[in-house]
Design brief:
197 residues; mainly alpha; Arp2/3 complex 21 kDa subunit ARPC3
Length: 197
């Protein structure tokens, strides 16, 4: 699969945005609320699907994961390396690929209304949470050191804290993506190239 220069540039931009989103609390420490860091990874993964489409959005998230695995500190808390694979939160990194793909795919197949963009973004969020939380549970149960009394219910209760933020940001990603589509992307060379391919 051959990528054009424009596509490579846009994919690289989202890799950079994911890196910033993963470590936003290093830039803005006030975004740690109750000891829980507020990250923007899910927002940018959804936005990648909204802006880049299913194929390129998924490619950009795959590149993000691979860049981190080879040792570039792009994950949360500037984590990196193959050892990250056994981290309980690595499932969320994998889920970003499917989040971007599903979000982009829904938008590609339906009318370009703001409601569709928001719906697609929320479906992407559901995929992120379901995959990430279930893989986190499996990791804690089989190879990571689980907290005492850890249960499947507990894993989901942990996700209640960031959920309102992620719902808000998913809706925002849908709205922003729709506005970009109407004002910039529909007239861009990037969209013309995609339609021609």
């Amino acid at each position: 699969m051959k990528l054009r220069t424009t596509e490579i540039t846009l994919a690289a931009m989202f890799v950079a945005l994911m890196t910033v989103g993963a470590n936003i609390t290093s830039i803005a420490p006030f975004l740690v609320i109750g000891g829980v860091p507020i990250t923007l990874q899910t927002f940018f993964a959804i936005l990648a699907g909204v802006v880049l489409g299913s194929r390129l959005g998924a490619i950009s998230m795959t590149v993000y994961a691979l860049v981190g695995l080879v040792g570039v500190p792009v994950f949360a808390k500037f984590g990196a390396g193959l050892g990250t694979i056994i981290s309980p939160t690595f499932g969320f990194i994998i889920s970003f690929i499917f989040t971007a793909f599903a979000t982009g795919y829904i938008i590609e197949k339906m009318k370009k209304t703001v409601g569709v963009f928001i719906f697609a973004a929320l479906i992407g969020l559901v995929i992120n949470y379901v995959m990430g939380t279930n893989l986190m549970y499996v990791a804690y149960k089989f190879w990571s050191s689980a907290p005492e009394g850890f249960t499947y219910k507990m894993a989901w209760l942990w996700m209640v804290v960031p959920l309102p933020k992620d719902i808000f940001l998913a809706i925002l990603a849908g709205i922003v993506g729709h506005r970009l589509e109407r004002t910039v992307l529909s007239r861009s060379q990037f969209r013309k190239l995609r339609k021609a391919s």
